[in-house]
Write a structure and sequence with these properties.
This protein has about 290 residues and is mainly beta. It has a single domain, classed as Exo-inulinase, domain 1 (Jelly Rolls), CATH 2.60.120.560. The chain has no helices and 19 strands. It has strands spanning about 10-15, 20-25, 30-35, 50, 55-60, 100-105, 115-120, 120-125, 130-135, 140-145, 160-165, 170-175, 210-215, 220, 225, 230-235, 235-245, 265-270, 275-285.
């Protein structure tokens, strides 16, 4: 993940001349906003290693999150313990009768037009995020993903992707079997906020599963009444248990909640790494 939060749905970014151009939109309608010097811009940001010598990298010049006392992307935050998942846990789970099948290996008809491609019954991230045509609020989601083998790209981008509920709240995808990134950016983290309780990653090249219950935030006019919550089972292991989401996804900063629609598209992130997906289905819980 490497975006800043705009005034609507964050979709992509482009660094220009020491500032950020944040792009946002919905259903093909795009805009852009040139931001100057902001907390969260990457120019001058310096990665540092954790003090314990574990090799974890992150940042110490970011805001402190008041709910946990750690910096955003703090390399000194404790790493979740590694847990070996059962063989092929939850893989190939069939969609219930009331689920919407978003991807069954045949086509991308349930998604907005994109450059993503079909590869042997899977869809592969290329450029630009992939957004569902239908909008969702609270939901149950099943999704299977695979990070490249051998690993592709630089350390901070290996197997990098994400699942964006309502196009705003990210469940991170990352090759945390191979790489040591800041805990709130590793696989199954609520990106930039809360690490998973366990590292349940499989080796690169192996299919992995997410089974998720997402509870959408509730607003009264312009005020937040109830924050979003998420429960995540990664490869059959509970790693997020009714975890509060403290705001929209943001990189190197803390983004506050802003009023938005009750339902918005589900998005899958393209982050310059050929992560693959298959067997995606969703049940609305509203």
């Amino acid at each position: 993940m490497n975006v800043l939060f705009g005034s609507s749905l964050p979709k992509a970014y482009e660094a220009k001349k020491g500032a950020w151009t944040v792009m946002w939109g919905s259903h093909g309608k795009w805009g852009s906003l040139l931001l100057g010097v902001l907390v969260g811009q990457s120019q001058g940001a310096e990665l540092v290693k954790s003090k314990d010598g574990s090799g974890v990298v992150g940042y110490k010049d970011t805001p402190v999150m008041p709910w946990c006392g750690f910096h955003v992307h703090d390399p000194d935050r404790p790493l979740p313990p590694t847990v070996t998942p059962a063989k092929e846990a939850f893989e190939g789970a069939q969609a219930p009768s009331d689920a919407i099948v978003l991807f069954d290996g045949k086509d991308l008809d349930q998604w907005e037009r994109s450059s993503w491609k079909l590869v042997d019954g899977a869809m592969e991230a290329t450029a630009g995020d992939l957004a569902s045509k239908e909008a969702f609020g609270s939901c149950q989601l099943h999704l299977e993903f695979r990070v490249p083998d051998p690993p592709v790209g630089r350390q901070m981008n290996r197997g990098n992707s994400g699942v964006f509920f309502m196009s705003l709240y990210e469940l991170q995808i990352f090759d945390s079997y191979t790489e040591k990134i800041y805990p709130d950016g590793q696989c199954a983290a609520v990106y930039g906020e809360t690490p998973p309780s366990a590292n349940a990653c499989r080796k690169p090249g192996k299919w992995q599963t997410y089974d998720v219950v997402f509870e959408a935030p509730v607003f009264e006019k312009v005020e937040l009444r109830t924050p979003a919550y998420i429960t995540v089972i990664h490869n059959g292991i509970l790693v997020q248990h009714h975890t509060e989401i403290h705001g929209p996804c943001a990189y190197r900063t803390i983004a506050p909640y802003k009023t938005h629609a009750e339902k918005m598209p589900l998005s899958l992130q393209a982050h310059g790494n050929p992560v693959q997906f298959r067997n995606i289905w969703i049940r609305g819980l509203d």
